[in-house]
Amino acid sequence: MAIKIGIVGAGGMARYHYEGFVKAGAHVAAIADMNAKGAEVFAASRGIQNTYPSLTDMLKNEKELDAVSIITPNKFHKPLIIEALNAGKHVFCEKPPALNAVEMAEILEVQKSSGKKLLFDFNNRARPESQAMMQYIQAGRVGKIHSAQACWIRRAGIPGFGGWFTTKALSGGGPVIDLLHMIDLALYFMNYPEPAYLLGVTYNTFMDNKAFKGPWGIPDSANGVNDVESACHAMLTFKTGQCLFIRNSWAELNEREIVSVVFQGEKAGGKVERLFGTDGIDETSIDTCKIFVEEYGRQVDLAITAVPDETMGRVSAAANFIETLQGAAKPLNTPEEALILMKIIDGIYKSAETKKPVEF
Ligand SMILES: NC(=O)c1ccc[n+]([C@@H]2O[C@H](COP(=O)([O-])OP(=O)(O)OC[C@H]3O[C@@H](n4cnc5c(N)ncnc54)[C@H](O)[C@@H]3O)[C@@H](O)[C@H]2O)c1
Asked: Three-state DSSP class for 125?
């Protein structure tokens, strides 16, 4: 029997979840959105049978659901995950896992006692070049990764002014939490070590300048709030002796948008990078996957060709959730990793605010 899933949130990301679930053989039975029209339009275009104004209504009427997918603004992730887990459903939730580590710790408690699966949409792990790199790492070709640099820097990419993205109470923060993907990918390659110390700085230089608005995002809201950072720079050490540099920005005077993880290991270095052809446009992007080694006294670069993926792994990540439930694949991430990630994000904000190093 096909796994039955219900979606909560019919916004920009819903199409990727839907495509991934269907691709893996699941049946999307219902969609809930507080904006009834949005849910109806999405459902009609995909033949989804039922729409609801809330998760609560969906759970009341769709007793047979095996799983729920959550694609709402960040503030609602924790309450909706907990509601779905308590109703006995497996959960796939968009990133970030929660607004902060305290919320994520609460989620983890409920998940453990529920016995249900909980995966997050860290879609960049599912990109073909990330998986190719992971194969080399797991095969022992890289050795221990000593150091890494995680970078998602946009020059002019504020996702709309005054909407939920720029309102800290709704989003948890700006690019530090929104663009957490490369931090997560670096940690994934590094075997998710426990953090030791962190020193970070954030800036909000361009949060009042519409010239720094991205070509995508949500509509501006004239009376809305813009109280999040526009860029961050941080340095992190781990209990294992490893270290990580982090640069994230929505708006900073960089040459161009760069999305990359670069690392230096005992046996090889490596780089996974996405350069957008025209800033923000997936279709024309160039993905790189390279390994740097020494062979026979020479310095050698291996260029790994991976299948292009316009969706940046989003469809594959959603499919992985279903395949995990089917027992056909290993989960691409765990709630325990999500807690470490949220602790690091909290650490960046704390260090930036106190102007002091944070000890974990
Ligand atoms: N993985 C990625 O590449 C990626 C990219 C963009 C956004 N996201 C994440 O996806 C999530 C949603 O982002 P989006 O761009 O789709 O946002 P969006 O604003 O386009 O859509 C959110 C939808 O959720 C609905 N909603 C809000 N609260 C709700 C609630 N309590 N119950 C039911 N419906 C509710 C809204 O009406 C809206 O239709 C965010 O957490 C964001 O961080 C991930």
From this structure: helix
Domains of the chain: 4-121 (3.40.50.720), 125-310+340-359 (3.30.360.10)
Distance 72 CA to ligand 1 centre (A): 3
* Distance from residue 134's CA to the centre of ligand 1 (Å): 29
Condensed to tens digits (0 to 9), the pLDDT of residues 240-289 reads 999 999 999 999 999 999 999 999 999 999 999 999 887 667 778 889 99
Report the residue among 40, 54, 71, 82 best suited for mutation to probe ligand 1: largest number of ligand atoms under 8 A from its CB.
71
The alpha carbon of 11 and the centre of ligand 1 are apart by a number of angstroms equal to: 5
Distances (CA, A) of 221 to 205, 217, 226: 20, 12, 10
Contact between 233 and 201 (Cβ < 8 Å): yes
Look at residues 251, 248, 154, 176 and name the one whose alpha carbon lies nearest to residue 212: 251
pTM of the model: 0.97
Identify the residue whose C-alpha is closest to ligand 1 atom 43.
95
pLDDT digits (tens, 9 = 90+) for 54-87: 999 999 999 999 999 999 999 999 999 999 999 9
